[in-house]
Amino acid sequence: QVQLVESGGGLVQAGGSLRLSCAASGGTSSYVTLVTLGWFRQAPGKEREFVARISQSGGSTAYADSVKGRFTISRDNTKNAVYLQMDNLKPDDAAIYYCAAARPAGGNLNYAGAYIYWGLGTQVTVSS
Length: 128
Description:
The structure is a single chain. By secondary structure, the chain is an all-beta fold. 0% of the residues lie in helices and 48% in strands. It is built from no helices and 11 strands. The strands form 2 sheets. Strands 2, 4, 5, 6, 9, 10 and 11 form a 7-stranded mixed beta sheet that branches. A 4-stranded antiparallel beta sheet has the order 1-3-8-7, with no helix packed on it. A hairpin with a 6-residue loop joins strand 5 (49-54) and strand 6 (61-63). It starts with a strand and ends with a strand.
């Protein structure tokens, strides 16, 4: 089993920055070093949406249009961890942010269904 734990959320003013971290633990935590890792977010009353993902090697990344140029995803396979640097935050970025590890078979990696392990989330609040 793999447990994912997010951290780094909080309250920030519009235009500010936050860095989210997600670390894997558990008996098979090394699983996360073998698959794509992603970040999703969910605002109140809205569906969970894709934010960013990074390939197993870190050589390929993808972002939602709404965060492109402002957010940067990275990973450290030696620490079983993935990160999300969020700059120039906007009130619309406020949500609970979740990290996730993809299924071995992959699929459409911009959709939540392609991910098998999820963290409990960390709250990001952006004041205007």
